[in-house]
Amino acid sequence: MSDQDKGKAPQREGASDSGAPSKKSSSSKKNLPPKAIEALLDMNPALKSELATMDPETAAKTIANLDLDQMLTGLSINGKNQKDMASYKFWQTQPVPSFEDQKNKKPVAQGPISIIDPERVPKTPGPLVDGFEWCTLDLTNDEELKELYELLNNHYVEDDNAMFRFKYSQSFLHWALMSPGWKKEWHVGVRASKSRKLVASICGVPTELRVRGERIKVTEINFLCIHKKLRAKRLTPVLIKEITRRCYVNGIYQAIYTGGIILPTPVASCRYYHRPLDWLKLYEIGFSFLPHGSTKARQIAKNLLPSNPEIPGLRPMEVKDIDAVYDLLERYSLRFDMNQAFTREEIEHWLVYKEQPGKDQVVWSYVVEDPETHKITDFVSFYNLESTIIDHSKHETVRAAYLYYYATESAFTENQAALGARLQHLINDALICAKQEKFDVFNALTLHDNPLFLEKLKFGAGDGSLHYYLYNYRCAPINGGVNDKNQPDAKKMGGVGVVML
Ligand SMILES: CC(C)(COP(=O)(O)OP(=O)(O)OC[C@H]1O[C@@H](n2cnc3c(N)ncnc32)[C@H](O)[C@@H]1OP(=O)(O)O)[C@@H](O)C(=O)NCCC(=O)NCCS
To answer: EC no. (predicted)?
Structure first.
């Protein structure tokens, strides 16, 4: 499988292959002075933490043998898997900005790239290769939900080393794909005509974004997946064109999607961070490393958390909190260049867990109710997304909590130190709650105000970035919370306020 096949993968904590000595080419071997090496490693914490697991002699040898070109590629957050525009045979035909557009420093006229004439949108799907046919999945039918689950469970996103694969549960898919206003036609599948087997999918749900004050109706695209045996046959462009057609037919001309690979052209790029909750398990499965000179006991102690949340008044969110959370999240979201214009109904759907027979809990939300005023001052949420551990004798899955939406009144005090201090408490309590719920790791991106707490709360830099894309919409680049060195940076906040599943 080529690197192009990997999307928003569950990447290992601080791991990197970019230093593989066997890939060294003599032309790129350079003797860098120690200061330059240090600067390069500071920019590439994944590699740095891999080197930290080695004894000094091996680390020195590894550095001496490093392929500088590879090391530099690893540095460039926006460089991973990037080809030049002419090589994107499909994407260069689509209404998306080119890399050149994005580099151009001239002010960007924000808005749709192409104006769609509804009359000219084909009423029927385009042709598929012989032996396959289009289908619309009925996800209210448990059998079809299970088919999608099985396709994804076996063929969806893996990390670069094929150690982990996302395992979206059936309850998760139910939650993610049947949000308010969902449309059956946007759950697109491809079946093998003879066997009826589901071999590919691409799905969308409707929502509204605000991009620098402009409201746009969009489809959130997700779960693009092709059976491993049907890869590299140019089926992706066919799937994308079909869901685009189905969106156009419904009068939606823009979309938002994310991925771990570079396509033309990210509007924003965020970096993954991971906070171990069960360090030993993460170590056993090869997700976390033992830094050189440390011990397992020390790593376990370092990641220990109090047994109970500490903010007075923190409790699970209930239906009665929806209005307060809606109001708080709305005000908080408006601080970001790109944010989701939630409706009250969406808040209820996405944040409030209601027990249902046969369904597992997917989202956990907590509010802080001031013990004196009873006002809701903060809220925080996370969702459960497990990954299969491929070929491991002891552990089958890793249970990951992903930080979802949160908001706090402290954001409106104009005092970044106070906001940072409050978020450290709030997110630390979320870590404690996730630990109580038996999660192994807590993941977060550098979006929202996350740079204010990630490192303080012992989140480690991951290998992966998540790139945000807008379809048929042009706007100036949006900050993803990281600087040129790919480090979380408070000066680069205020950009991304949308969390995609
Ligand atoms: C991603 C996946 C569908 C691509 O399939 P593939 O068989 O490798 O690629 P195809 O031959 O069908 O199509 C190639 C085209 O799709 C584009 N493409 C590849 N991955 C893409 C993605 N995640 N999103 C959008 N376009 C993508 C390629 O850039 C290429 O177009 P180009 O010529 O303009 O560069 C497949 O690898 C897969 O199912 N992977 C696991 C799940 C996954 O990563 N999903 C994406 C989550 S973001």
So the answer is: 2.3.1.97
